[in-house]
Amino acid sequence: MITALRHFLVDSWLGRVLALLVFASFVVLGGTFFGIGGGAGLGGDVVVRIGGHSVTPMELQQAIQRQIAYAIQQNGGSPEILKAPQAREELGRAALRTLILTREGEVAGQRNGLTPSDDTIRAVVFSMPVFQDPTGKFDPQKMEAVLKGNQLDHQSLVNETRNMLYGSATTFNFGQGMVAPTAQVDWMVNFFTHGRVVDLIRLPFSLGDVATQPTDEQLKRYYQNHLWQFHVPEYRHARLVVMTAGSVAKTLSVSDEDVKAAYDQKMKDPAEAARYNRPELRTVEVLAVTDKTLAQKIAAMWKKGASWESLQKQHPSAIPASLNDARMTDFPDPMLGKAVFATGAGVVSDPIQTAAGWSVVHVVSVKPAYQANFTDMKDSLREDIANARAVPLLKERTRSLEEEVAKSATLDQIPADIGAFPLAGTMDEKGNIPGGEPAPLPGDAALREALLQQVFSQKKDEPPHIVTQPDGSAFAVLVDNIVPAHQGSYEEMGDKVKEAWLDDARKHAMEQRATSLYQHAKTDGLRRAVDGQSEASLLQKDEHFSRLQQRQDVPALILRAAMEQKEGETVMLQEGDAYWLVNVTGSYEESPTLTASLRQNIMTQMAEAYRADLRETLGMSYTRSAPPRHFNAGLFNDINNRVFSSVSGRLGQ
């Protein structure tokens, strides 16, 4: 059930649509804020004005940092999402929009006489759990420690609390009684809980039977008929020198005292310490059923060596779930969590009674609890400090690089101690070396794309010059050789021509074989079509497909065919490097327990989406009463780029 619900909310297209409905309410309006008056007449201390209020650079910087932290959290703790070029602008806009709506709520509250008193603000602060001791009482010393750890003062806390109260009163508390329409919920539950039982077979082109080798005449004719396959792209040899925040960081020295101070600071902050101190983790496989007798049967078979996958096929009513590196709190049922952590590595448990029925657990592996110490963390902390210090140095180092490039027409005399690193190589316009492998270009996708564009737009032997990127990284290019694109001759491409001919012949042979099996399967079913044939070993029987539990081992086209064709039908499809035959043999419904959980989740998600729409409408009405003015686009871009330069340095880009 855990895996199923996770797939619904994260991997399924409709789960993503529901999440997008909520997210869209936070970004769609953002577009209306970026066409408003320019920054004429503004200094560098105001990003945008709302009524008598201003969004300052420091507020925007902190908001973007919070937005980045939230994005990483939503991505399972991985920063990979930040490497997408479009993420920088989208996250920056989302952060600015949140600030604007906060200010709009404040203006609307003041306009309607909603002004939180000092007593109200004090009561809210005293009730915040983060400032309370274990007995639930307000602890002023704990408040001071939290504020200091987050580089905040008392006035900042008061301001943030006041903004929160304004937002609650004017925007975020509206629509709490909203419920999802029953008809829509029923349709979605029905859509996701009806699955298909399928027989299928994958027939790779490479298995096509080609009895004879091609003659020279056949190969020449194939070459003449497929000239486009043997076109040699333009290749350029270039010398490059690249500087990023990460490369500058590698030139910086960080003292042991600074590293120890950073370690002590992190360990004093409970939230930071929790990132490094890890409890015991377990990777598990679970099968959940409603009947104790069935659970005992599954446990007995599992203990005798049956695999998790085979048990799922033998008992389709059992709900599978798998968790990697799970904490005890990751298990929704406390009894299940306790039982999992009482079971040893490699052991299958006896049936465990839970609130939803019975579960059997196989503990695949155990990672013991880990307490971070200074010795383990000092290298990563030293790198973090260096990355943070490199960001403000990047512009200064870029000026030094510019001076060195001006003195070195061949880019072979650039000092290493400024943080620039040289590289050279031959590549085509797609960034591949002559052998076809990707060239080892540095940085993120945006930097690699910029490097390629410069290499293929710069003239041969043109003096190198510095090119800077939005994140502050810089590079220079010298193109010293160009091999023009040309049509490869038959003699030059002989081996490739033969391999292409054979690939085409194998594909044609497999197409004929797949068509023959398909014609048989249309009348007798796929099992009879391959019975006694060499392809019988490739047949996958009684495979279960549903929209709720997306399978990653089958292409999307095949999944769609399994769900959309009628029971008893067989279809032949080409996907990737193979033909597929798909025969729907039956259908099934998810368990009542899973269906009930799914219904509750859909109702919650849809209600939140409707609430978000209501808040969006309120936010639009507030902006009409007090529209944002004097947006300083240059200042916004500068702050956003600087924040992400710091992130890029931390990621070693």
UniProtKB/TrEMBL annotation:
UniProt entry keywords in alphabetical sequence: Cell inner membrane, Cell membrane, Chaperone, Membrane, Transmembrane, Transmembrane helix
Transmembrane segments: 12-36
Superkingdom to which the source organism belongs: Bacteria
A Pfam family recorded for this sequence: SurA_N_3
Protein localization: Cell inner membrane
Membrane topology designation: Single-pass type II membrane protein
Alphabetical list of InterPro entries matching this protein: PPIase_dom_sf, PPIase_PpiC, PpiD_chaperone, Trigger_fact/SurA_dom_sf
Residue intervals of the PpiC domain: 254-379
Signal peptide: none
Chief location bin: membrane
Family that this chain belongs to: Belongs to the PpiD chaperone family.
Record protein name field: Parvulin-like PPIase
Organism in which the protein naturally occurs: Bombella saccharophila
